Amino acid sequence: MCSNEPLPVEEFVANLQAVGPRYWHDHPFHQRLHQGLLSKHELQSWAANRWYYQRSLPQKDAAILANCPLPHIRRHWLDRITYHDGDRPDTGGTENWLRMAEALGLDRTEVLDERHVLPGVRFAVDAYLTFARTKPWLESVASGLTEMFSPGLMRRRLADMREQYPWIAEDGFAYFTSRLTVIADEGTTTLDLVVEHATTRAQQHAAIAALTFKCDVLRAILDTVDYYS
């Protein structure tokens, strides 16, 4: 095969899936979370820092919309912003994450003012936003293929946190319960979109690199929280 020709679809998808071990599912901090070994303070630090990531996701999606010239993809992608921001006040994924933080004993004000966000977390998340704002829209979409790796982890996290931290009110798990209903479909849809539009070998390699970068961003977030908690 000429080096300029695109990889066969099966090989391209396999290369994307091969990035999976870089995902943050087996990070030591996550392992301790699932084993019930985190203190309340560590859980609070995790929630407060991950808030900075969660609240940045609709901004990332808005950057994809701004960079994408295709109306049908923009219409499709708009739903992701609504999912995170909600279609009215006090709804949406970011609101549900705030409820998780409150269930862990944090005051909503101290999460919103980001006083607990560590510099390393801010740096990693800001780098991801810059990526979405400055890279071609297809690369930014491909970075979100971490959705392929997350449904199993999220189901496990919900079950383990309910078992290991029974003091957390059920309302605090709204983020996970609502996310489980959409994430599997989103992962499949995103993969189909990337496969359809990555029509050159260069675009395919860029998509794989984008997914690798996103996994590194996520692990950098946990590295920082793990070190300072």
UniProtKB/TrEMBL annotation:
<dbReference type="InterPro" id="IPR011845">
    <property type="entry name" value="PqqC"/>
</dbReference>
<protein>
    <recommendedName>
        <fullName>Pyrroloquinoline-quinone synthase</fullName>
        <ecNumber>1.3.3.11</ecNumber>
    </recommendedName>
</protein>
<dbReference type="InterPro" id="IPR004305">
    <property type="entry name" value="Thiaminase-2/PQQC"/>
</dbReference>
<comment type="function">
    <text>Ring cyclization and eight-electron oxidation of 3a-(2-amino-2-carboxyethyl)-4,5-dioxo-4,5,6,7,8,9-hexahydroquinoline-7,9-dicarboxylic-acid to PQQ.</text>
</comment>
<dbReference type="InterPro" id="IPR016084">
    <property type="entry name" value="Haem_Oase-like_multi-hlx"/>
</dbReference>
<dbReference type="Pfam" id="PF03070">
    <property type="entry name" value="TENA_THI-4"/>
</dbReference>
<dbReference type="InterPro" id="IPR039068">
    <property type="entry name" value="PqqC-like"/>
</dbReference>
<dbReference type="GO" id="GO:0033732">
    <property type="term" value="F:pyrroloquinoline-quinone synthase activity"/>
</dbReference>
<keyword id="KW-0560">Oxidoreductase</keyword>
<comment type="pathway">
    <text>Cofactor biosynthesis; thiamine diphosphate biosynthesis.</text>
</comment>
<comment type="pathway">
    <text>Cofactor biosynthesis; pyrroloquinoline quinone biosynthesis.</text>
</comment>
<keyword id="KW-0884">PQQ biosynthesis</keyword>
<feature type="domain" description="Thiaminase-2/PQQC">
    <location>
        <begin position="15"/>
        <end position="223"/>
    </location>
</feature>
<comment type="similarity">
    <text>Belongs to the PqqC family.</text>
</comment>
<dbReference type="GO" id="GO:0018189">
    <property type="term" value="P:pyrroloquinoline quinone biosynthetic process"/>
</dbReference>
